[in-house]
Amino acid sequence: MTGRMLAFMLASLTLIAIPGPNMIFIVTRSATHGLRAGIASAFGVETGTLLQLTLVGAGLATLVAASPLAFAIIKYAGVGYLAYIGFRALHSARKGAAAVEAAPARQRRRLFLDGVLVSALNPKVALFFLAFLPQFVRSEGELPAFGAVFIALGLAADIASCFAANAIGRWLRVRSGGSRVVGSIYLGLGLFTAVSA
After folding, report:
1. pLDDT tens-digit map of 183-196
2. Domain count of the chain?
3. How many alpha carbons lie under 13 Å from residue 110 in its C-beta half-sphere?
4. 177 is in which domain, residue-wise?
5. Which of 64, 133, 165, 166 could be bridged to 27 by S-S, CB 3.0 to 4.6 A?
6. Are the beta carbons of 169 and 29 closer than 8 angstroms?
């Protein structure tokens, strides 16, 4: 198992490094709301990943993959939520630079829940696990260990992204267009998700 685990870790790090909705969510939250908000978002995203892994373990992800209707429902629920986050950011832009100051504790809880939903409402995450994990996992009993390693690596990469994005946070927070940029990113991401196969 050790050799397979090392190969799995290397493959996971390669895949985690590819930007996607989760990373974009974490980076934009860190840049516009500060490091703590970014870390809260990262924990939310990885909680959503844990939910996806739980679905894979329970066999529900296979049902979603086999049902175009179920896949479409989850996909467009995710698109709708990305659009909602985008419009919320655009609305906050009207309040000026104060809208993107460091997030208070209550707002960090909201960002955590946003992260959970952004990740959990992405059916492609479950499909990715269905295609990726069988290459390394030989039995259902190994799934928790491999899943925990993937989430730990993902969280480490997420937190590193938080620090990197926070480094430019001061620059974004003094520009009135910061929230507009973030809102536009999420609307564009939602559109891309909607039209993707």
Report:
1. 667 677 667 666 66
2. 1
3. 9
4. 2-195
5. 165
6. no
